[in-house]
Design goal:
28% of the residues lie in helices and 26% in strands. The chain is an alpha+beta fold. The chain has a single domain (12-249), classed as Creatine Amidinohydrolase (Alpha-Beta Complex). The strands form 4 sheets. A 5-stranded antiparallel beta sheet has the order 8-7-9-14-15. Strands 1, 2, 4 and 5 form a 4-stranded antiparallel beta sheet that branches. Strands 3-12-11 form a 3-stranded antiparallel beta sheet, with no helix packed on it. A hairpin with a 6-residue loop joins strand 11 and strand 12. It is globular.
């Protein structure tokens, strides 16, 4: 885990703002899910995200972040994460990962879903179902008294039980005043390691799961990560607050 992470405990007022931000982002995703269809380009999907963000009176968190050129990361099939929107056309049977961050009252919210377009072949549908469920298994461990890697282990053990691979090159993260805060949250590892979880911590938990090998490579654009074996990958993410009574998913309406 490297040096000991500096994990900020959010105040009740900060948690209120983060909850509002999460509701707004979840609402944006509800509309995107209904609008993405066969024949759209990933650039057109990004334009939809841009207009919904503007209409919601929030700021796109990704646009310009370390030079990223778009509002949304859009990753199709073998693209794992950080896909740059452009001319790629969405086709029947594709899976399309959409990852969006927003800034609301100077606080960040981050969420991702992978959409199945049209009729999916069974292996791809299983990949989506397992990745979504792995996220929920990880979130279930985000409670006071657990250790950070209890989240990691829950994700990895479920994914591998189902015959898929967890991406190790990218991780979840703390979130709040910054898009990426301490700690890093791997989707793999032994349980009961790392910092003790406490109420007021806020995490972006985000399994990235490959149908084939775990290994990835980053394309020459410096952003788009693809699976090394070109098999499909899925990505789901929620921003989650740890409370005395357990995890609170912020990115739901």
């Amino acid at each position: 885990m490297g040096k000991s992470p500096d994990i900020r405990i959010k105040t009740p007022e900060e948690l209120r703002i983060l909850r509002d931000a999460g509701r707004i982002l979840a609402g944006i995703f509800d509309e995107i899910k209904n609008l993405v269809k066969v024949g759209m380009t990933t650039g057109e999907i990004d334009q939809v995200a841009d207009s919904l963000i503007k209409r919601s009176n929030v700021v796109p968190a990704f646009k310009g972040y370390r030079g990223f050129p778009a509002c949304a990361c859009i990753s199709v099939n073998e693209e794992v994460i950080h896909g740059i929107p452009g001319k790629r056309v969405v086709r029947d049977g594709d899976i399309v990962g959409v990852d969006i961050g927003i800034i609301h009252q100077n606080y960040y919210s981050d969420m991702a879903v992978t959409l199945g377009i049209g009729l999916l072949e069974p292996g791809r549908q299983k990949l989506l179902d397992v990745t979504r469920q792995a996220l929920m298994h990880g979130i279930a461990k985000a409670r006071p008294g657990n250790r950070l890697t209890d989240i990691s282990h829950a994700v990895q053990s479920y994914v591998e039980l189902k015959g898929f691979s967890v991406v190790r090159d990218f991780v979840g993260h703390g979130i709040g005043r910054k898009l990426h805060e301490d700690p890093e949250i791997p989707n793999y590892g032994a349980p009961n390691q790392g910092p003790l979880l406490k109420a007021g911590m806020v995490f972006a938990i985000e399994p990235m799961v490959n149908m084939g090998l775990a290994r990835i490579k980053v394309l020459s654009d410096g952003w788009t990560a693809i699976t090394a074996d070109k098999k499909p990958s899925a990505h789901f993410e929620h921003s989650v607050a740890i409370t005395e009574s357990g995890p609170l998913i912020l990115t739901v309406k």
